[in-house]
Design goal:
With 240 residues, this protein is an alpha+beta fold. The strands form 2 sheets. The protein has a 7-stranded antiparallel sheet. The chain has one domain: Naphthalene 1,2-dioxygenase Alpha Subunit, Chain A, domain 1. The chain contains 6 helices and 9 strands; from the N terminus they run E-E-H-E-H-H-E-E-H-E-E-E-E-H-H.
Length: 240
């Protein structure tokens, strides 16, 4: 019987399957939004039939927002810059809306207005710190994020073609108590729609990879190239 170092936090049990001597020094996510009392949390817990690298790329590349245009209407994405370290890659985006803002987004992020000279633009920062991903969204002029997401992907099978996704979506509460609770079904419906479309596209990418025997895409986006390099260096090969 094998035993592994474990840690309970944020309503989850984290298991460290590596060298037990490294457990204390390994990166552990700081999901302070979950414990601050300022946010309401939705837990993610589902399986996706693809290698985890496709999901890392999906979250880091906001240029795929056209996929969600049926749910989110049309959004123009602006890439602001990328940073990297030994075990992480981080990217910044801002957005401008072309179509009508959907009700689910209004509930999560508030009514989106055009940026002004005083308030500036919205900011989204997405970070891959293997094997974790963190996404934070600040509305223009705000000091605390309106949305704080932590997510990780755990391979289920030896070939790593199925992964179990665990995550916490933390949404900033309104100043009026219980309003977010009343509107929570809209958030569930909205986020489920986004997740289902993401699942569909990454599983199609996995299917294409398996049928072709390789990745035939000519990737040029610097963020994805850096994420791929990070995952190659830190991830465990399929034939391990």
């Amino acid at each position: 019987v094998r035993h592994y170092p474990c840690r309970e936090a944020y309503g989850l049990i984290f298991v460290f399957p590596g060298d037990p001597a490294l457990a204390e020094s390994a990166f552990f996510p700081d999901i302070s939004a979950r414990t601050s009392g300022k946010y309401k949390t939705r837990y993610l817990n589902h399986q996706v039939k693809c290698h985890y690298s496709f999901l890392h790329e999906n979250l880091m590349d906001m240029n795929h927002q056209f996929l969600h245009r049926g749910i989110m209407s049309k959004i123009n994405t602006a890439f602001l810059g990328v940073r990297e370290g030994e075990d992480w890659v981080e990217v910044d985006y801002t957005f401008s809306r072309v179509g009508k803002q959907p009700i689910g987004e209004k509930v999560m992020l508030g009514l989106r207005k055009e940026p002004t000279e005083d308030k500036g633009k919205d900011l989204m920062t997405v970070r891959t710190q293997y094997p974790n991903q963190i996404l934070k969204f600040w509305t223009a002029g705000s000091e605390e994020p309106a949305l704080d997401l932590w997510i990780t992907y755990v391979p289920v099978d030896k070939q790593q073609r199925i992964n179990h996704t665990f995550g916490l979506i933390n949404i900033k509460k309104f100043s009026v108590p219980l309003v977010l609770d009343a509107l929570w079904p809209f958030i569930i419906y909205f986020t489920n729609g986004i997740f289902n479309e993401d699942r569909w596209v990454v599983e199609m990418e996995q299917q294409a990879f398996d049928e072709q025997g390789a990745d035939c895409n000519q990737e040029i986006f610097p963020v994805i190239l850096k994420v791929r390099d990070l995952l190659r260096r830190k991830g465990i090969p399929v034939d391990y």
